[in-house]
Amino acid sequence: MRSLTLLIILAISILQETFGETCSWQNCNEWSKTKDTLNVHLICHTHDDLGWIKTVEEYYYGAHKDLVPVGVQYIIDSVATELQKDLSRRFSWAETGFLWRWINTHSDFQRHNLAKLVQKGQIEIVGGGWVQNDEATAHYIDIIDQMTFGLRKLNETFGKCGAPSIAWQIDPFGHSREMANLFAMMGFEGLFFARLHYLEKANRLKNNSLEFIWNASDDLKTNILTGAFYQDNYGPPEGFCFDRFCSDDPIMDDEEEKDTYNVEQKVEAFLKHVKKQASHLRTNHVMLLMGSDFQYSNANEWFINLDKLIQYVNAKETETKVRVFYSTPSCYVEALSEAQPRLPQKNDDFFPYASSNHSFWTGYFTSRPTFKGFIRKSSSFLQLLKQLDAFACLGPMDEGDLDVLRRATALMQHHDAVTGTAKENVTRDYAKRLAAGWNEGVQVINDALSKLVLKDDKSKQLPAQAICPLINETICEVIRSSGEFTATVFNSNSHPLSTVVRLPYYSRDAIISAPNGEHIESQLVKTFFGTNQLEGTKRAPYELLIPVDIPALGFATYFVSNKTSIRSSRLTPSKYDKSKRNAAMSAQQPIVGATVNISNGIIEVDFDEDGYVSTIKNIHTGQTTKMRQEFLYYEGAGFNEGDNQSSGAYIFRPNGTDPKRLSSNITLQVVQGPLISEVRQTVNKWITQIIRLIKGKNYIEFEWTIGPIPKEDKNPITKEVITRYITEIASNGEFFTDANGRQIMPRKRNFSPSFEYVNTEPVASNYYPVNSRIFIKDANTQLTVLNDRSQGGSSLHDGQIELMLHRRAFYDDHWGVEEALDEPGDSGKGLVARGIHWIIIDSPTASPKMHRSLAFELFHSPQLSFAPLQLSVEQYRATFNTLYSGMTRSLPDHVKILTLEQWTGKSLLLRLEHIYQNNEDNSLSQPVTVDVEGLFTSFNVISLEELNLAANKRKRAASHWSNSWNRSSRFSSRYADGFSIELKPMEIRTFKVEVDMEKC
């Protein structure tokens, strides 16, 4: 596959030299310079989902015509054929994933013709990511990766004309401020989308503010020209859809056929529409979208009718003062730049999105929680693999194909993938693609370790490494079948990690040796089976807890033996504090009606007699906070008829404002040991939880397991399960959520800064996407919740935070998927989901330093690989390195290595990020300088070339726009002082790094 890709790139690069490049923005059809003439830009386009109702392959090939009777390959074929007939025709294409699929399956001649159309400006690439990513549930690291992946393919294929200037987010269900910030840092000149809250849409129509300047970051002062479409979708005006999916009449211009001739009627309707649309804009330019979902499979039908429309409308230009022509989004932005209107500004975001008074698109923030968790873990795994690939200098001769996971993870960011809004069989196909990427990733680990761990004797072979994909279910076959084994713990974070890892274990004895060969303390506990929600028969009876210290961008190998010894770990019994109860209980008997507490020397957690958390004490500061955590569920609205809005994959619509409370009498098991202390809660038959304190950690871990959510035999009731953290913090209606895991967005209950709030759905309208954290605070205390996947969250009452963890809906919400969100799970009885929250309670001044670093620690949770140990520990250590770091020294606390991967030739792609916003921390919210000379162990840095965030253009390259609204695109790079790189708060800087790989 690697060889085929290289041949395709080589062939197209040769073709690029055979004709000159006049990209779309350099080859616009002429518009009228007369101010009283209305210029109508026809934007021919198709929106092609990479999976939704059908799988990505089914969409591409045109399978299952009963669902959608087209194939994307034929759309590209048809458009390319029709564009060659008339040089004035234009077309805009967005989905690189499908385009690259087409390039890989067509002849050199066909690829040549397509490339020629791009480089002559007839085809404009917009967006350019592998997919059109979601903006609510996608993490910024994934967004940057998928954009970089898609744009790199375009650059390799089409050269400079393949580098889009316009961001094209026409279908995502709400839009984030951080996404606009990322687009600005990538150098995009404009951003267009279709979906925004119906009340904000009405307000913008009223104020002629559909086009505006979006101030995307208070820290970086980035901004970008943004346009919301006039219509409520991204399709053509009524009566002007010339596609097989539409029933609109074509333009019939045979004057002798009086009964069918409709030119005057069509022209009049067209002029009426464009003049009405123009009345809501601030220039004499109007953008009309001509196309929609999977349209243009017969492009001839479209272009014949649009040619006629242009001909007959322009014939009356002197009379009507309207000129219509084929255009592209970049030509439209060029026209706006020339007109230089005074545009309003926006500082907030577009969440939550509502299409009507009862249709709030906030359910998908949580839909398919296990799939969302799998995507997040896959992203973290991908970062690790890219680093290992770079440090080990892997090449085409190595067996592992990193692109399989890179491509799959990029695909998952699609706005019907990570959102959880595709059909069940499509979601399973997505998961299979991720799993295939993980399989290749294991080979990458083996390829890399075989080069990084060998000492003097290079002929030795490292035992084959395996990973345990079901480790969170306490299942690991390689451990079960091995009396002695190695556990290699990887840290993809650019800061060292000290934590406790948990392994499934099948023996009552364990001896642990550290990388240096010394025996270390461990802890052995019985697995918490709860109510047997996870029905797997291979679950280990025990968990082995090992304290680990892993260097930055590195790994450490630990040794485990189940032999009996005086050093063996002994089973830590489940127990309770007998002093707080009169009657003695056996180690295995659950606790009911007792107060218990746990502590790790940093935090102490007390539980009341009902089994709920009651108080949390910071032992170092002495601060005690009253807190209660409980599970509840909303009953979702359910209707079989489309006239009423149900809760479903997209929509969250609870019946009423008060969720149902679950068990008020929780049973507990308490485990206290040297490494972890935990309280195991059984809430009911389908909800269990472990509340855990880890040695040396200043947070509380809440590990929840939910499911299968019950389904009634008749008239089943949709259930949307939440966790609620209740404190006495005087939050005054305010709370804060992250935007795509990065900048913090202030929220206010029952309020919007962009329109007058109407309380039609008091719960759903206050839900926001939470990718990494949500917090509330007052003058003295801040409660922060970190999560391990995207979830919907809110603060519906002062002092409270709630996050939706799982949902099971039994009615379709009538937004296209035509399927209820009723996941069967592995058992067929319903999905069981397990996830983690980290809870921080501290002062508002101390909390940012904690949640900024801990969010990265949670994202980069350690990955483990295992192998049977066939040598003694001493022999293994003499043969293989057991401790490795890709870095020679530590980074400042406010700096992270966001990206490190092989790029081209002897170059790497390096992104450095300042992770703090202004005014978050007195010392860390300051500019910082990093010297990358001698920073890495496997190679020496020779030179740096700064690129934009997407790595597809040099940062210092001048913009071709005469008047740009994007400040970041006008900023020249700050040249590094030698190899010293300055970073300002929230800044990400991207470099192509030439390296000397002699150390490899």
TrEMBL record:
SMART domains: Alpha-mann_mid (SM00872). One of its GO terms (biological process) is mannose metabolic process. The keyword Zinc applies. It catalyses: Hydrolysis of terminal, non-reducing alpha-D-mannose residues in alpha-D-mannosides. GO terms for cellular component: lysosome. One of its GO terms (molecular function) is carbohydrate binding. PANTHER family: ALPHA-MANNOSIDASE, LYSOSOMAL ALPHA-MANNOSIDASE. This is Alpha-mannosidase. It comes from Toxocara canis (Canine roundworm).
